[in-house]
Amino acid sequence: MPLSSQQTNTNGEEDVLTLVIDKANECFNQADVFFGHKFKRSNCNLKQRGRAAGTAHLQKNELRFNPFMFQQNPAEFLETVVPHEVAHIIVFQIYGNAVKPHGKEWKAVMLKVYGLSPSRTHTFDVPPQKQSYEYRCSCQRHQFTKHRHTRAQKGVEYICKGCHATLQFVNANK
């Protein structure tokens, strides 16, 4: 059965979601042929926000995609992000939780099934933060999200990867 959306979207997102679902179905079909097995299709939506272009929620069998990033370069998004996330679902349906998310099995699906370089990162711009919090170490300034700032205020200690100093709160930026 082909993929479907989980909700009705507005503001032109229906067209975007249709393109994403079509590409995901194409990816699942490629995997079906390659493995000689019919994989269970995932639900797709455009609920992904923040820094991630997409996520695969394995136990829910759900694919979430970031509409902000899709709009930047739809062709690149469809050719890289959708296969990346479908590959996670394929690997999960074959191996369960016994493998690493970007391990050799996922890399093999990306290369052999989709003919793509198995990259963990994207080059899309991320949406601007609504509010950031400035922290310092001995070598540079760091911008924290509200979530990370809240965790730091509750006692989570963050260390700079460069100088290995503990990050100290400076002020909030709006």
From TrEMBL:
Domain SprT-like: 22-170
Coiled-coil intervals, chain numbering: none
Classification via InterPro entries: SprT-like_domain
GO biological process: one example: response to stress
SMART domains linked: SprT (SM00731)
Protein name listed in UniProt: SprT protein
Organism annotation: Marinomonas rhizomae
